[in-house]
């Protein structure tokens, strides 16, 4: 898709995001945070759509965040003030930050759209060109099973053998993809693209073998390992790790430098199941949504919990960093019912 056709699809997708999802209407105000990673032409589309809807818009260009220290970075004071004064905000900067969580707690509706020059193509592919109705039905079914279930079992041919207690948990996503339009004053934030179900449990024990993405872009250590990484999970913590000579040595050195045992707290969120058939493994915001993959978060979930009203996570973990890991080609059973088998959705 090139030229004018691409531009039309992108404008249409952004209009759906800002109008039907973010809920912006005439008289509202929108603050857009971005940096040099996102071309100004992309940001101007956000502005054009919001203006067409009758909203006031402030485009706020921020300094590019320093590599390696962006998990809890604080936005400059003018940006914080602009977000607090707005009805809604789009963050194409660092979303995992306390001032944005505070804004959400105060009723600002927040949409997180990743930074970067590939965002238009990614949004068209993962939002504008997928069967939302199908993902919606799958998501609703998984939520129903999850919130009425007791235990999840995750296995793989590589040796994953996990048991997760899910009794009484609440789930991350609303029963709709995209989510319903937020109401005024409602605490609300959403990451795009969509296509992720599940997402919380009380306790996990067992062996986890990571063969997908591991790490965090925010700390500059992120990618596919050179080989499977075997982790032993005990007492809601990663207790022992072996395997991989590429990513894990870098990641573990960084984590250990924090002198904070909670950076190995597990799970910060998850397990979650990807539903989006158009998501790519390497994409900045889409790799967790790759259809049939299973992901977990590790370390801090304090900011994420604030975004959700504190309902979507099991153990509360306050740490100096948040990172993620992915399992590909695995099996997930909920009270014995197959949700994923060999990386394929089965509901």
Describe it for me?
The protein is α+β, with helices and mostly antiparallel strands and 347 residues long. It folds into 2 domains: 3-128, Thermophilic metalloprotease-like (3-Layer(aba) Sandwich); 132-179 and 195-345, no CATH class. It is 27% helix and 26% strand. The strands form 3 sheets. The chain has an 8-stranded antiparallel beta sheet with strand order 13-12-9-6-5-17-18-19, with helices on one face. It has a 6-stranded antiparallel beta sheet with strand order 8-14-15-16-10-11. It has a 5-stranded parallel beta sheet with strand order 2-1-3-4-7, with helices on both faces. Strand 17 and strand 18 form a beta hairpin. Helix 1 crosses helix 2, helix 1 (3-21) packs across helix 5 and helix 4 (98-105) runs parallel beside helix 8 (302-308).
List keywords for this structure.
Thermophilic metalloprotease-like; 6-stranded antiparallel β-sheet; single chain; 347 residues; 26% strand; alpha+beta
Short description:
By secondary structure, the protein is α+β, with helices and mostly antiparallel strands. The chain is about 25% helix and about 25% strand. The chain has 2 domains: about 5-130, 3-Layer(aba) Sandwich (Thermophilic metalloprotease-like); about 130-180 and about 195-345, no CATH class.
């Amino acid at each position: 898709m090139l030229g004018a056709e691409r531009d039309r699809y992108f404008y249409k997708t952004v209009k759906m995001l800002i109008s039907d999802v973010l809920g912006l209407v005439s008289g509202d105000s929108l603050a857009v945070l971005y940096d040099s990673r996102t071309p100004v032409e992309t940001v101007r589309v956000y502005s054009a759509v919001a203006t067409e809807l009758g909203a006031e818009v402030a485009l706020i260009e921020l300094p590019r965040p320093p590599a390696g220290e962006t998990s809890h970075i604080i936005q400059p004071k003018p940006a914080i003030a602009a977000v607090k004064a707005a009805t809604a905000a789009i963050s194409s900067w660092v979303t995992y930050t306390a001032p944005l969580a505070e804004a959400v707690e105060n009723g600002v509706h927040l949409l997180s759209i990743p930074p970067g020059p590939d965002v238009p193509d990614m949004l068209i592919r993962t939002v504008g060109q997928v069967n939302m109705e199908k993902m919606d039905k799958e998501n609703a079914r998984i939520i129903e099973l999850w919130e009425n279930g007791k235990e999840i079992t995750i296995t793989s041919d590589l040796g994953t053998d996990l048991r997760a207690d899910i009794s009484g948990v609440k789930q991350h996503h609303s029963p709709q993809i995209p989510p319903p339009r937020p109401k005024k004053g409602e605490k609300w934030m959403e990451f795009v693209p969509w296509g992720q179900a599940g997402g919380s449990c009380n306790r996990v024990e067992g062996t986890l073998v990571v063969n997908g993405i591991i790490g965090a872009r925010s700390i500059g250590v992120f990618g596919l390992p050179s080989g499977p990484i075997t982790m032993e999970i005990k007492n809601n913590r990663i207790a022992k790790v072996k395997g991989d000579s590429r990513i894990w040595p870098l990641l573990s050195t960084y984590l250990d430098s924090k002198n904070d045992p909670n950076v190995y707290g597990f799970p910060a969120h998850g397990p979650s199941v990807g539903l989006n058939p158009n998501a790519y493994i390497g994409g900045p915001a889409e790799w967790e949504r790759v259809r049939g993959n299973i992901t977990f978060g590790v370390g801090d979930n304090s900011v994420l919990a604030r975004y959700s009203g504190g309902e979507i996570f099991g153990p509360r973990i306050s740490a100096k960093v948040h990172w993620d890991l992915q399992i590909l080609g695995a099996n997930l059973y909920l009270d014995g019912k197959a949700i994923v088998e060999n990386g394929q959705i089965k509901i």
